[in-house]
Amino acid sequence: xxxxxxxxxxxxxxxxxxxxxxxxxxxxxxxxxxxxxxxxxxxxxxxxxxxxxxxxxxxxxxxxxxxxxxxxxxxxxx
Length: 78
What we know:
The chain has a two-stranded parallel ribbon with strand order 1-2. By secondary structure, it is α+β, with helices and mostly antiparallel strands. The protein is flat and about 45 Å long. 36% of the residues lie in helices and 15% in strands. The chain has helices spanning 33-55, 73-77; strands at 6-11, 60-65.
């Protein structure tokens, strides 16, 4: 590959551990802001792992990183 090694870098948080992927409720009928956030971070983690599995032999590396803490409303709701 001409541009190898390539990288996929996804930002996530430790909040993904509270996430639950429910494929029967993709539109989040019972919407909760924090559940939606945790679910999106868990989906990013799953994508990163699968991308690494699929493309590592082709020198496409995938990483999921936590950018650090920031003060936000999530800090007070967790």
